[in-house]
Amino acid sequence: MNICFITSSEVAPNIGGTERITSSISQALSKKYGIKCYSIFSEEQKGDLTLFEGKLKVENFTKDEDRIVKFIEDNHISVLINQGNNGLYSLFNSLKKKISNCKLVFVYHFEPGWGKHTSFKVSYLNWKNNPTMRGAIRLALFPVWSIKMKMSFEKSFRMSYINSDRFVLLSESFKKQFINFAKLKNGDKLVAIPNCLSFDDFLPESAIQDKTKTVLVVSRMREYQKRISLVLKIWKEIEKDDALKDWKLKIIGDGYDLKDYQRYAKKHLQRVEFLGILNPEDYYKSSSLFMLTSRSEGWGLTLTEAQQNGCVPIAFDSYSSLHDIITDGYNGCIIPNNDIPQYVKSLKNLMLDDNKRCSLAGNAILSSHRFEKDKVAEIWYQLFKDLL
Known about the structure:
Strand 11 (289-292), helix 12 (301-307) and strand 12 form a beta-alpha-beta unit. The chain is an alpha/beta fold. It is 44% helix and 17% strand. The strands form 2 sheets. The chain has a 7-stranded parallel sheet, with helices on both faces. A 6-stranded parallel sheet has the order 10-9-8-11-12-13. Helix 1 packs across helix 16 (373-387), helix 9 runs parallel beside helix 10 and helix 9 (228-239) packs across helix 14.
């Protein structure tokens, strides 16, 4: 069986969550089932690139349709998997007419509906980063433009669903949400497949005792979704407690809000370290606690990365698939959304209670085995068998 993944960026495990999952699943499918995996992408990357049987770089997915068709036919692709680009529904529609023996699968990597609510601040920052006349007009007409974008966004996912043979969500809890959001009559083509673990190794439970008094954040520095400002506000309260003076915060990631966070930390905080982009695995292994403050996630890949390394996650209850990963008080902590005082309280309790923290860490490692690469790859393989 030959399958092909379509991604915006060339697949490399350290580029982002979608690329990391594509890398993990393609390798697991190849190793366990002998499936030959191919890649189509538009943005070249450098560094540790994932190996595929063959690759095709395109300048524009729609304009390069003929090259894509030829690539699919030449390599006898049985299943084409679109990793979340809802702008390609017209391409899928065209491919359905041109290639009858290739099944089309769309994977939605976010919470259904996420992205339809665009804030003025985000639009302004995007325009500031790339000032154009078109962008200026959008800002001037923002109330009208945002309504138009919401309708266009809903249509793009409705058409992506219609033009796909299967539509994959990351959680069963998202199905009803997606049907309502995309205004579908039914969800017969919807399938739920969780993200697999990023790493092959699990922290030995004996190593939990060796962890340092470090709280870790691994995230893009994008305020609207990730809300790192809340991390810093919570940490400000932690630093006020002399009983926690040995604890430090380490933040891995980059993005155009990073400088704002650094300025805040320099003015208000003492024990915060910004580390930039790097492989976080060793930091998960050495850190005791992990913070997530996102407004929304599709899955929260960093949560399972933390769990398999015994780094206890604490997260706001801001999206439904969180409950697929964390059982509150067993393998992590779930905090009522936006309740900063409760987040501070839970964080302090775990910092001060070694036995409780170590117990949750052990449970986190144990529970993370549910999402091993081979187990998730088996679900994907069954999907392919059902399609073909």
